[in-house]
Amino acid sequence: MSHAVVHRRIGGPDVLEYVEAEPARPASGEVLIRVDAAGVNPIDAKLRSGIRPSPPLEGPRRVGADGAGTILEVGEAVEGLRTGMPVVVTGAQGLYADMATVPAAAVTPRPHTVDAATGASIGIPASTAYQALRSLSVGPGDRLLVHGGSGAVGQAVIQFASAWGAEVIATTSSRRADRVRELGATPVPYGEGLTDRVRTLSRSIDAALDCAGTDEAIQTSIEVVSDRSRVATLVRGADAPGFGIQAYAGGAPYGLSEQQQAWRREAVPVTLALIAAGAFRVEKGPAYPLRDAVRAHEELERGTDGKILLLPAQS
Ligand SMILES: NC(=O)c1ccc[n+]([C@@H]2O[C@H](COP(=O)([O-])OP(=O)(O)OC[C@H]3O[C@@H](n4cnc5c(N)ncnc54)[C@H](OP(=O)(O)O)[C@@H]3O)[C@@H](O)[C@H]2O)c1
């Protein structure tokens, strides 16, 4: 019997239920996946709790946008994917499950050398980081300030931006400064006096990306970057127009452009190739059996180091 995590109400972590649920046979353009690992993202908790509005619940809603596993069955009109292929899935729904039927467009072949837990950790974080940096035109010689540098998105931002020739200053807790440094950024502790500390490190900052969502992150960014078209938030989208800065989803009153969506898709195979080549690092955090999704979301909301994972085979 197959299982999935669903919720029938908006609320705290305990609205998540581990239930028996057979996946649908793949229709045209779809693929059935055995999920070996699901990535737990902040957006999962924001949708569950209603922090990010979503259509009214009209029955049990499946959870989870990121995962990795193996293709069990391929529907009609799907090209380039075969039964037995290891894959990464991102931008789908219902990956907190041991099997999931997903659109083929959400599926990317995964090199055999990249394990499922690593593959499940990259979808949303790496694709968001890559798109945001492309949108901000970050490149050689730029000085970039990233807020939340020790998080999943922040770590991807540091690695892409450094690889593209930018110098990165990353805000972090003091506890996590070494991680940020190892990835190639100069750490700066967040908290009172941040703008002065950033100015002490660098007289000019060309672009800033907020992955933290605090007033301090927005204020510091607009104080140290003169061109507001090169300041963006991933979290405070609703407030971005008022500050005259960019927002990429995160509650923005407008959607991603076609180019931005294309960059997000492009990021997944690029990141997988970099990981396979040993040129991109992923920090995995605590792993839970699928039946313990409630605990995983409690941990997500407390804050933890590395990507939280759900491992269906352990349930
Ligand atoms: N718009 C989009 O499309 C999009 C996509 C992905 C993610 N997001 C959003 O981006 C945010 C980060 O996502 P994530 O997956 O990277 O989360 P994450 O892995 O949980 O990381 C969160 C980071 O926030 C940092 N942080 C905590 N308090 C802070 C503060 N007061 N000031 C500055 N940083 C602070 C933490 O640093 P320490 O551990 O060092 O304290 C941690 O590194 C979330 O809000 C998420 O919903 C948006």
UniProtKB/TrEMBL annotation:
Domain of life: Bacteria
Span of domain Enoyl reductase (ER): 11-310
Pfam family membership, one: ADH_N
EC id: 1.-.-.-
Alphabetized Gene3D superfamilies for the sequence: Medium-chain alcohol dehydrogenases, catalytic domain, NAD(P)-binding Rossmann-like Domain
InterPro entries associated with the record: ADH-like_C, ADH-like_N, ER, GroES-like_sf, NAD(P)-bd_dom_sf, Zinc-ADH_QOR/CCCR
Keyword presence, Acyltransferase: no
GO molecular function, one term: oxidoreductase activity
Keyword set, alphabetical order: NADP, Oxidoreductase
Protein name stated in the entry: NADP-dependent oxidoreductase
Provenance organism: Microbacterium aquimaris
